[in-house]
Specification:
It is a single chain. This protein has helices spanning 3-14, 27-58, 60-76, 83-89, 91-103, 135-139, 178-194, and strands at 109-113, 118-120, 123-125, 130-134. By secondary structure, it is mainly alpha-helical. The strands form two sheets. Strands 1-4 form a two-stranded antiparallel ribbon. Strands 2-3 form a two-stranded antiparallel ribbon. It comes from Camellia lanceoleosa.
């Protein structure tokens, strides 16, 4: 199983040192970041995997494409290569995960503070007001995602502009847990389709 490697990789990134061998982060900062990574992913990854399993059960062609991708990666694996290398090659599988996040976002809504006076839909919104946005409203917007009710992992073959509108990980700043969630999801999904 790849999960022990994931934990080691995440921790290795936190304990990186400068060229003069001084730590970039203090022990307390490393501990805080490790806890945030683990707690932050508790619900989000399990929700994503739940909806992915449902999607694969309902979409046999997508399931078959994931199995085929996994088999091709395994056949092409050089002797001694790590399973982490395999995860980086699971491009289609991650597109399916992104499409699952688009259709069933794990966060219903979020609040943001308005940075400057704006007008939206003819309504003035003053600076410093709190606004709420719903991810599903963006994810199902036909001007951003054509035919939004259709399950189409190929939407995510191009990185821009569509992925900037996927609220799951990309907001004004990238989610710090993005890479961990990607590896965790691909590792578990890879094990599930292998069974």
């Amino acid at each position: 199983m790849v999960l022990p490697l994931i934990k080691i990789s995440a921790l290795a990134c936190l304990v990186i040192h400068n060229e003069d061998n001084s730590a970039l982060l203090s022990d307390e900062e490393i501990e805080d970041n490790a806890v945030i990574i683990m707690i932050g992913g508790y619900d989000t990854s399990s929700i994503l995997l739940t909806f992915l399993i449902r999607l694969l059960a309902n979409e046999p062609s997508i399931y078959a494409a994931i199995v085929q991708e996994k088999e091709e990666i395994a056949k092409a694996r050089p002797w001694g290569a790590s399973h982490m290398d395999d995860l980086n090659k699971m491009k289609y599988t991650w597109r399916v995960a992104m499409e699952t996040l688009r259709i069933t976002p794990h966060g219903f809504c979020s609040f943001r503070r308005v940075l400057k006076d704006i007008e939206f839909g003819g309504c003035p919104i003053p600076k410093r007001w709190q606004v709420v946005w719903a991810a599903s409203m963006t994810h199902m917007d036909e001007t951003i995602f054509p035919n939004p009710s259709k399950i189409d992992p190929t939407r995510f073959e191009q990185q821009a502009p569509v992925t900037c509108c996927l609220v799951a990980f990309r907001r004004p700043r990238m989610c710090p847990r993005y890479e961990f969630a990607r590896i965790e999801t691909l590792a578990l999904l890879g094990d599930l389709v292998h069974m």
